[in-house]
Amino acid sequence: MQRKSGVLAAGNFDSNTGYAWKLMERLWCELSVFYEAKNYQTYVVFPTVSEVPECLIDHNCIVEQADFTSRSLRSVMHQASYIKKNSIKAVYLTDQETKSFRFFIFRLCGVREIIVHDHTPGVRTHPGFLKKLIKVILNRLPLFSCTACFAVSPYVKQRLININGVPPSKVHCVTNGIEATNVKPGLREEGETVRIVTVGRASYYKGIDFALRVIRSLVYEHECRNIRYELFGDGPDLETFKKLAAELEIEPYVVFHGAVSNVAAKLETCDIAFHPSKGEAMSLAILEYMRAGLPVVAPNNPSVSSTLEHDQDSIIYQEGDVENAVNALLGLITSSEYRNRLGKCGQSRIVNEFSTEAMLLRFRRALSTVIG
Questions:
Q1: Who wins on pLDDT, 22 or 323?
Q2: Taking a C-beta distance cutoff of 8 angstroms, is the pair 29, 363 a contact?
Q3: Which helix (H) or strand (E) holds 72?
Q4: Which structural domains are found in the chain, ordered by start?
Q5: 0.85 exceeded by the pTM?
Q6: What are 119-165's pLDDT values in tens digits?
Q7: Hey, what long-range contacts does 20-28 have (CB within 8 A, 24 or more apart)?
Q8: What is the C-alpha separation between 342 and 332, in angstroms, rounded?
């Protein structure tokens, strides 16, 4: 009996790692449905496998241990062997290079399509003329460049074109989405304490030190004693931030929750989302704030705020400007009506633009465009 052709989806971490990888599992399942109609078998591989995600089993995916993150010659030979053994004709990679010598090796082994889905965060420096020219040329070489790029946000799409040098015809926008079936519309009652929340890793890259300085200004320079800032998330700098809160004398106004479960339910008890991150691709935390009906305060860093609409679902402040961020928060702290208006708009956008169903529809359309 002839072996089925295969499609390969490669994870970059252990099979049981991270919230964002749960989203990738949904895309891999959709990939399996798409290719099953073409009589392909879907393989999902991880560098290590500690637990096999149930949804992948339900979608008839074969889950195995194989590292497709390494670029060493030895690793590429193992990757090529895996591709030949399983008759892989299409490869779907996440957050990997758009051009590579190993893509040439993969194609020699029978691969026809290579798709790279870019979720990497942050702003990139524009390359000089010569470097940009080299990137443009390499990303147009049929055997060495990917077949298509899926971008997780409009900003990432432009970054792939303008910074990476990928031809615009190769780039398709597949924005993130979250479950919208449990959106609970309604106005929040005004309480004695206004709860300001950040969901994210306790790290300097997420801007938590900046948030603490903003809170200090609100408390001591603007006499906002009715606020409480809460961080949902663990991370490498958590203890440092606790010490910083003590140095800034804002301990009574700050709560470090560490890692928490059921974030969605906890957000429903908060009033304002503050997301001072220095870089994102398309933040799932921001989508969760919007689903919970929270107005979002975020910097004008395009990688962070590109999916937000100022004075519609959010207030955008000048990145790194403490007083500008303070003023953005003050308007929301002092007006529950303003908070509710922005929060309601955010919920509407989740339902209409950023639901899981909308994400999967964009994914299917992109696959159909690339594969046919």
A1: 323
A2: no
A3: none
A4: 6-177+355-371 (3.40.50.2000), 194-353 (3.40.50.2000)
A5: yes
A6: 999 888 899 999 999 999 999 999 999 999 999 999 999 999 999 99
A7: 20/119, 20/284, 23/176, 23/284, 24/94, 25/53, 25/55, 25/56, 26/55, 26/356, 26/359, 26/360, 27/117, 27/360, 27/363, 28/56, 28/59, 28/61, 28/92
A8: 9
Q: How many residues does the chain have?
A: 372
| Cα–Cα distance, 13 to 22 (Å, whole number) | 12
Q: Which helix (H) or strand (E) holds 89?
A: strand 88-94
CA-CA-CA-CA torsion sign (275, 231, 122, 366) = negative
User: How is residue 206 annotated by DSSP?
Assistant: G
Question: Which neighbouring-strand residues pair with 246?
Answer: none
> Which tokens belong to 266?
């906890």
As separate numbers, helices (DSSP H) first and strands (DSSP E) second, the chain gives 14, 13
As a whole number of angstroms, the distance between CA 129 and CA 69 comes to 29
Pinpoint the alpha helices (H) of the chain.
19-36, 54-58, 73-85, 101-108, 129-138, 154-162, 208-216, 238-247, 263-267, 284-291, 302-305, 322-333, 336-353, 356-371
